[in-house]
Design brief:
Length: about 280
């Protein structure tokens, strides 16, 4: 099972380049005007960078391109993902009210095989609107988007069951409207059920369902999330590309406002006034 050609088609659309550019080993820098592809947020398109290990693909707003070209001059693509270069990118992005995605670079995995796992758990398949009740459920933050949208619809959830109790779930969302057969997988297992191979089992089973429908499953995780990477590897996934993008800066949260008598100072003042009154103490003005 080889999705390499499908990936080249996806990246060529997202980075406004040709499929042959991706294997060239060169740094390919393009304007993001008119780009298509996965769109997770309004700011997508100001700056995105990816590498398959051969050079680097960058697409950005026209205003940001001169900086990127200067930064990548005489620089191999892989080093653009090192801290020094990412820090320089972050500082320049701040001039435009943007910042690098807080999650940092993501390692993206594609399945090379679907192994037969020994673990087995009872499964329940949920489709929309059956899984609608789990939007915003803090127990399962990684299986669904924040809310259902036509642009990035969640399409399938598998729940591992212990009787009527959900032990863990895996979900799949259709991330890319340009080629709608790309489905990203997320998985969450409740703490009391971890360490039993359930996460790998769920990912493996939902991968098989996606492939049976003719779609392409993929899996993303941050470099420090070793447990998630091990889950992907155990299910026959392999790292194929790395990516990072810019997001709009969020305004700082306003400090919590307290009404009168809610701060500790006001409380102490009130207690002192009550004590003075009780003791009949006269304070000379």
């Amino acid at each position: 099972m080889n999705y390499r050609d499908n990936l080249k088609k996806l990246l060529s659309l997202e980075y406004n380049c040709s499929e042959t550019d991706i294997d060239s080993g060169a740094n390919i820098i393009t304007s993001s005007a008119g780009r298509s592809g996965r769109k997770y947020r309004e700011s997508d398109g100001f700056f995105s960078m990816a590498s398959t290990g051969k050079g680097c693909l960058v697409t950005a707003d026209e205003r940001f391109l001169p900086f990127v070209r200067e930064l990548s001059k005489d620089c191999d693509g892989i080093s653009l993902f090192e801290f020094e270069k990412l820090n320089a990118i972050a500082q320049e992005l701040s001039r435009y009210g943007c910042e690098l995605n807080g999650a940092g670079p993501h390692h993206m995995f594609l399945p090379c095989e679907v192994p037969a796992l020994s673990q087995k758990f009872p499964l329940k398949r949920l489709e929309f609107p059956e899984f609608k009740q789990y939007y915003g459920d803090k127990r399962f933050p990684d299986i669904l988007c924040d809310e259902y949208t036509d642009e990035r619809p969640d399409v399938l959830v598998l729940a591992a069951m212990d009787g009527d109790v959900i032990m863990g779930m895996a979900g799949a969302s259709r991330d890319f409207s340009g080629t709608p057969n790309w489905l990203q997988i997320g998985v969450d297992v409740l703490p009391e059920y971890r360490g039993k191979g359930m996460g790998s089992f769920l990912v493996n089973e939902i991968t098989k369902l996606i492939q049976q429908s003719g779609d392409i499953p993929f899996y993303g995780t941050s470099p420090a999330n070793i447990a998630s990477q091990n889950t992907a590897l155990k299910c026959g996934y392999r790292p194929v590309w790395t990516e990072i993008s810019a997001v709009k800066k969020q305004p700082p949260a306003e400090p919590e406002k307290f009404s009168e008598h809610e701060t500790w100072v006001d409380e102490m003042k009130q207690e002192l006034e009550d004590y003075i009154e009780e003791q009949g103490i006269y304070i000379r003005q």
